[in-house]
Amino acid sequence: MSTDVLDATFAALADPTRRAILARLTAGEATVTELADPFDMSQPAVSKHLRVLERAGLITRSRDAQRRPCRLNARPLEEANRWLENYRSYWEESYQRLDALLTELKNDEDAAP
Fold first, then answer.
1. Measured CA distances, 6 to 3, 13, 31 (Å)
2. How far apart, in whole angstroms, are the C-alpha atoms of residue 13 and residue 23?
3. First to last CA, the chain
4. I want to staple 12 with a disulfide (CB 3.0 to 4.6 A). Which of 28, 32, 42, 56 is the partner?
5. What are the respective helix, strand and coil percentages of the chain, to the nearest 5?
6. For the chain, which residues make up each domain, given as ranges?
7. Block means of pLDDT (10 residues each) for the chain, length 113 residues?
8. Rounded to two decimals, what is the model's pTM?
């Protein structure tokens, strides 16, 4: 994955409104009006969020008569998840070392007179 795509993905995910929009789109396509409904903001403000998500490749828009439904494109999320997996392994190893140390300390404490 190019760093530009990864940067755009994480920049888009940095905003809670955009994350909520992506969560809504996991249930299926939606129009701007439908996506704006749960937020206390104008449709133009929601449209700005949608443009950020579209530039990051996280959503696509099509035309259906007067409607322009938005759809989730999860491929950039897969790439971001793959990048994050490297750090998950790091933290799992760190926790395993911590568990081993705590077990050793507990055993030493139990063995002490």
1. 5, 11, 26
2. 11
3. 57
4. 56
5. 65, 10, 25
6. 3-111
7. 86 97 96 93 94 96 88 95 90 95 93 82
8. 0.78
